[in-house]
Q: What sequence folds into this?
């Protein structure tokens, strides 16, 4: 079974939701047969790379909140994160463009380091003091820490086209699948879970998707020469 | 869309079938949105690693054929391979255990080199003179040629448990999906194609699976605290 998770590094509910999902997955009996893939999504794709703002200022402006309301929202997120054992700085975080991080996540995917990198990016953004935005050296440090090759990371950061199509393709696919927000979890392209739902909801989704894996419909040709001696002979399973 | 291909290096129809599938994929308009994953299958899992036999001898014994019949089968395969532009030695190939090759393919998957490695293994087995069986140095050479790290490859070959569970899990899954032979192609866990069918059959399967991608069923919780300011807000798509 495959679970695809659309998320953004700048999305605190994605950070919390990933931990909730992982708690459900750890308790799922068939967890060894579940493959997790991270897909790109930008909450704020129109923001210029050098347009970095404090989160509280951005929230107040975007949603017309008072700073006190924005602070209360962050405090709530801090409590939700703490309940999952995650560190979360409720003050003085930055908000900015995440396109380069998504491009690096696609590089990481090719090297089997995607989960390691997204976890380190989340931690850096939500728990550490130094901003992850508009700071290539910071991204190099994080990506190398996740096991990527420094020269390759610098190459991707220096070439804005590298993995750009892959990021855009993920974003198009989210829209096609009807995602109305992130985090957005898709199980075997059949079930969706929107938002950082409680672990119990993920448990239910895993169980349901697992139980309803449907038999395949075979597509074939009448009398094609497709198999032969020791071609398609399958020995009895042991 | 995802296509999973169960196959074995020792399976000539898998070698031919992969080329036919790739011809169909190259002509498929949404090919950039198709991800291909190789899954493990052993035609002859009970064979000891050092039990290497000429293919013609194995076929004659396994199917009670005369050597002339076995040779005619190989000649047919050689013609089918040639029609796909593949080299194929119809005489003096070896047959043996492929478990270590499948373990290496799982290592390669983690580094994004799976397709490169399977292609080189097929070529080595079907087109080159030197046997790929019971010869670790040969496998090291092929795997390093596919871009894997030599020390890592040697480490996997030296430890029979490395990626063994992954190979067995693939094989169990093939049985669960109802595979009755290899190659076995699975599209989005919905459609199956068994055998090295003509490229037209793969074209039809790709088109059908693409057209019938079903909308997701959302699983959710009533009033959970799953989103909030800048959590699940999705900007209008551009």
A:
């Amino acid at each position: 079974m495959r679970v695809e998770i659309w998320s953004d590094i700048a999305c605190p509910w994605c950070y919390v939701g990933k931990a909730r999902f992982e708690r459900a997955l750890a308790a799922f009996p068939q967890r060894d047969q579940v493959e997790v893939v991270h897909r790109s999504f930008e909450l704020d794709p129109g923001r210029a790379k050098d347009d970095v703002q404090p989160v509280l200022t951005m929230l107040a402006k975007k949603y017309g909140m008072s700073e006190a309301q924005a602070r209360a929202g962050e405090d709530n997120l801090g409590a939700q994160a703490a309940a999952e054992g995650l560190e979360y700085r409720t003050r003085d975080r930055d908000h900015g463009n995440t396109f380069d991080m998504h491009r690096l996540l696609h590089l990481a995917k090719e090297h089997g380091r995607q989960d390691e990198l997204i976890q380190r990016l989340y931690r850096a953004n939500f728990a550490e003091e130094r901003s992850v935005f508009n700071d290539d050296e910071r991204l190099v440090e994080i990506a190398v820490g996740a096991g990527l090759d420094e020269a390759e990371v610098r190459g991707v950061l220096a070439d804005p086209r590298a993995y750009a199509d892959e990021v855009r393709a993920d974003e198009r696919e989210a829209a096609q699948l009807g995602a109305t927000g992130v985090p957005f979890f898709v199980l075997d392209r059949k079930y969706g879970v929107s938002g950082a739902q409680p672990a119990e909801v993920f448990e239910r989704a895993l169980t349901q998707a697992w139980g309803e894996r449907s038999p395949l419909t075979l597509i074939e040709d009448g009398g094609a020469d497709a198999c032969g001696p020791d071609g398609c002979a399958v020995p009895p399973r042991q």
